Amino acid sequence: MSELTEKARKLDAVDELAAKRAEFVLDGPEGAVYLDGNSLGALPVGVPGRVADVVARQWGEMRIRSWTEEGWWTAPERIGDRIAPLVGAAAGQIVVGDSTSVNVFKALVGAVRLARETDAGRDEILVDATTFPTDGYIAGSAARMTGCTLRPVTPSEVPGALGERTAAVLLNHVDYRTGRLHDLPSLTAAVHAAGAYAVWDLCHSAGALPVGLDAHGVDLAVGCTYKYLNGGPGSPAYLYVRADLQDRFDSPLPGWNSHAEPFGMRSDYEPAEGAVRGRVGTPDILSMLALEAALEVWDGVTVEAVRAKSLALTDFFMECVEEYVPEGRVECLTPLPHAERGSQVALRCVDAGPVMQRLIERGVVGDFRHPDVLRFGFTPLYVGFADVERAARALAEELSEATAQQSHRV
Question: For the whole model, what pTM was predicted?
């Protein structure tokens, strides 16, 4: 047994979140090591039974009565309140529904409209130049719709790029490629000092680390639920609108579900009060209630404990990579300082695509980001330290074999 294997065993023995692993559908000790939580979290064991009940009893037997008697109608706000503590928000500020992209559009256009209430000359949107592509596409459309100029800048450039024309700033809390954690408190403060509104994309941070939406005065935020929140493929996203902004939030998608009298069927639109104002159309109940069941794995868990384990896992993975992987074969893109790191490790590798495919065939499931990034996501609720050591060892073996084959061909 190697020193790192023994270290992994000891770390797993004192892991306060180790028992949570049993609440997920995972492979046995010799099965796959699942490190693709950034794209799709593992299935919580309580979800299949809940979905079966929703389909067979609530839909099959109760039918239309379930909208009221089973709480279908209020699910978007109820589940939003369940997510709220995970992102540092008080109840009544998050509504669940639609996709991340749709919610980015609502939030960004809404932010521009908020800015123009007091200054009609604000005609610029700053967007994270390193953002996930969809956020950039949506920001471009929002800019065209509102008559704004779109200006891509890196997060570090935001303070210097802000000006009297800036209406809104769209930023990612964690960079999806590198795993870099951006400074949400200071960047939000800089945006506010310039008189603009901050919109944060929490897809790669919610459920992995403290966010502190209320504490840091974030204006609007969006996030998905199928990554660290384990809500399932295509599970609905969420929209956060700070409580004191809700009565001024003017959604660009005013649907009947966000009407003050949704069943009044009036031709004129009157927005509802509170988080409900962020709704649009009829919610996807099957996915919505699967998400609600999935969130039960968070019972008894603090985000602080999750963050502590996340950092320990990523620290240990980088230690194992440094020890096992042949020198010069990979370059770590993820920052070493804890204050700058999310819950993933990105390694640059010249043949990253084929390497990841072979790792998956070996039972280590990470993912590949074009053109040369191996990405490993660590979901603290079910990933253990033995998983981490095994993944690094498999990576080293694969790279060593590939290097040997290349040398033989030469």
Answer: 0.96
